[in-house]
Design a protein that fits this description.
Blueprint lengths: L3 E5 L4 H12 L3 E6 L2 H10 L4 E4 L8 H5 L11 E4 L14 H29 L2 E5 L12 H21 L5 E7 L5 H10 L11 H12 L9 E4 L5
Parallel strand pairs: 1-2, 1-4, 2-3, 4-5, 5-6, 6-7
Length: about 230
């Protein structure tokens, strides 16, 4: 059965890998990202998909664009939140702009897009997946703002699960460790450390975890999954 999935961060490592796997299964995709050129490139590589340019920093503007995805004849079987922003720094050195940017991209933006798509998700008895982070389960020095946003995302998922379960919506949080993505490359640069792709989890491995949750039988719900670097 062909289903329709909306994927944010679809031009990135994990989101892109999720899109590839779902495309291989023959599903309809709506690729969401903030850069038109990158979206078109991914859509072209996958053989043509719906695309939506959406800036999660513009939380107030999400409703106008996101609601177009939730038309009555286009149910949403799955919504995968894979977009994210990480800006490291000690709390003493983190300015309000950094805190707010990360909160908007990692929490408020996904919350608003989810709200807009709830009618379509309810119709399909759909599934929402939040690609969180290991920092959503613990906190390290220098990661305060990012970790706080990811802890908030965890709470968002838990509340959504309790509220929308009666409507048949399932909610999963996936907590990957360090993954070989451009975001990780930027993080390592902020840490003043070397980026070694083969030392990290591969995006497709995380994507397979997301897909396993999405394709799980209806009599169960995968709520929280941690994905750690092998041997760590």
């Amino acid at each position: 059965m062909v289903s329709r999935y909306v994927i944010t961060g679809s031009t990135g490592g994990i989101g892109g890998a999720v899109a590839e796997l779902l495309c291989e299964e023959g599903h309809q995709l709506v690729l969401v990202g903030s850069h038109r050129g990158r979206l078109d490139a991914v859509a072209g590589r996958l053989g043509g998909c719906e695309t939506l340019v959406l800036d999660l920093l513009d939380v107030e503007g999400i409703a106008a664009r996101g609601s177009a995805l939730a038309t009555g004849d286009s149910p949403v079987d799955g919504l995968v939140h894979s977009a994210g922003l990480a800006q490291l720094g000690a709390i003493a050195d983190s300015d309000p702009e950094s805190w707010m940017k990360q909160y908007k991209v990692n929490v408020a933006g996904p919350a608003e897009l989810t709200r807009c798509l709830l009618p379509a998700l309810r119709t399909a008895r759909g599934h929402v997946v939040f690609v969180n982070s290991g920092q959503g389960l613990h906190t390290n020095p220098g990661w305060g703002a990012y970790s706080a946003s990811k802890h908030a995302t965890r709470a968002l998922a838990q509340a959504l699960r309790a509220e929308e379960g009666p409507h048949g919506i399932r909610v999963t949080s996936v907590y990957p460790g360090r993954t070989a993505t451009e975001m990780q490359r930027a993080i390592r640069r902020q840490e003043g450390a070397q980026y070694v792709a083969h030392a990290y989890i591969q995006p497709r491995s995380v994507a397979r975890t997301v897909l396993a949750a999405l394709m799980s039988p209806r009599d169960m719900e995968v709520t929280d999954v941690s994905v750690a670097v092998s041997g760590a």
